Amino acid sequence: METYQQQSPLTGAVLDGRYRVDTLIATGGMSAVYRGLDLRLDRPVALKIMDSRYAGDEHFMTRFQREARAVARLKDPGLVAMYDQGLDGRHPFLVMELVEGGTLRELLAERGPMPPHAVAAVLRPVLGGLAAAHAAGLVHRDIKPENILISDDGEVKIADFGLVRAVAEAKITSTSVILGTAAYLSPEQVATGETDSRGDVYSVGILVYELLTGRTPFTGDSSLAVAYQRMDRDVPPPSTAIRGVPRQFDDLVQCATARDPEQRFADAAEMADQLETVVRELDLPHFRVPAPKNSAAHTSATTGTSSAATTVVHDHTKVFGRDELPVLDDEHDGGHDYHDEDEYPSETGHFAGIELEHFYWARQRARRVLLFWVILVITLAGLAAAGAWTLGANLPNLL
Q1: CA atoms of 353 and 115, how far apart (whole Å)
Q2: Alpha carbon distance 103, 117 (integer Å)
Q3: Burial class (CB within 10 angstroms; exposed 0-12, middle 13-18, buried 19+) of 326
Q4: In this structure, what is the dihedral angle of CA atoms 244, 246, 247, 253, given to the nearest 10 degrees?
Q5: pLDDT digits (tens, 9 = 90+) for 319-376
Q6: Membrane-crossing residues (predicted)?
Q7: 94, 48 in Cβ contact below 8 A?
Q8: Over the range 152-182, which residues count as b (16 or more CB within 10 Å of their CB) and which as e?
Q9: Residue 218, class by beta-carbon neighbours within 10 Å (0-12 exposed, 13-18 middle, 19+ buried)?
Q10: CA nearest neighbour of 214 among 317, 111, 143, 125
Q11: Torsions phi, psi of 161, nearest 5?
């Protein structure tokens, strides 16, 4: 989505006689997100207002309402809460929890690649939220940094469940389409347009790669070219793009992004279990994920209806015709190797302004301190035991 702080035609409107539209936070090809107010409960909310072209589409509205009800039943700290849905005039809309903070995309733009323990801190709630959805039979279909929100309190939440499915069933959309964001699509989404929980797992695997390296694994001259590459190219290990990535994270990404869905984690719960194994093996410390400082949500809260605008271009959820997919092979792509390490940025060596080596040495110091105390306790226990034995052996002489 593109984020703006400017006056919108909908600003000041009251939807369904209850929800006041305040400042525009972000806009994209299918919808716009606003800061709003529930006038009945006097509660700040986020309003996702769909493009007016969907209002007259019965297929879309049926799916839109069905998906909203299904998501509203989900309860998990890793999911943005759904409060209400409706149609006001020419605009279908969703009423959601307002997360004061920003997106994971904005955090990556501010701070760059993350160290492993920060990646784990992001993944735990993401996989937890997805696991709750997968257990209920729901699939997100568009996992990407723009759809992951980080609150000022360090909470990480997934947004936009069900929208891709609703748009896919709209009459205005061809039956032969791929919906999603090119960089994160699973091979089966590109091939058939269909997916299940393992498609979300693939997208999370791409997300892990991006969090560790600062970029997605596939590049190309167009979104379609990027989408096509995963059909016959494996995602490379993150360690080939940036130094210091542990082998366990390479393995996690490899399993999550296997081209054959049967070779992936079956769902988010299974991937979450493996993540916990990785955290234990690497002894990763706890980390509180920081919200981005210069986010669109923060700006909307402080500028009101200011016309001063800044624009940030993000990856869009798009509609791709499968018959538009280019035929890429060694002859037609100019021999270009999309896995060429020269295309990856050099390692920044920093996260949140702190050298990555400091995280490593902090963990080493913690281990040394723990080892010191273990040795001290064992030594004291040994001395106490020796003293007790000596006293017991000499007790008759003392008496």
Answers
A1: 12
A2: 19
A3: middle
A4: -100
A5: 444 454 444 444 334 333 333 333 323 344 554 444 555 445 555 555 666 777 788 8
A6: 369-391
A7: yes
A8: beebbbbbbbbbbbbbbbbeebeeebbbbbb
A9: buried
A10: 111
A11: -70, 135
Q: How far is CA 323 from CA 211, 219, 359, in A?
A: 32, 20, 48
Q: What's the token pair of residue 257?
A: 């992004």
Q: How far apart are the first and last CA of the chain?
A: 87
Spatial separation of the C-alpha atoms in residues 196 and 345, rounded to whole Å: 33
Res 170 pLDDT > 80: no
Plot region of 367 (φ>0 → left; ψ -120 to 50 → alpha; else → beta): alpha
Residue that is written with structure tokens 């004061």 in the block: 100
Q: Which amino acid is at 348?
A: T
Pairing of strands 43-50, 91-97: antiparallel
Of 22, 57, 88, 142, the active-site residue reads 142
Is 142 catalytic? The answer is yes
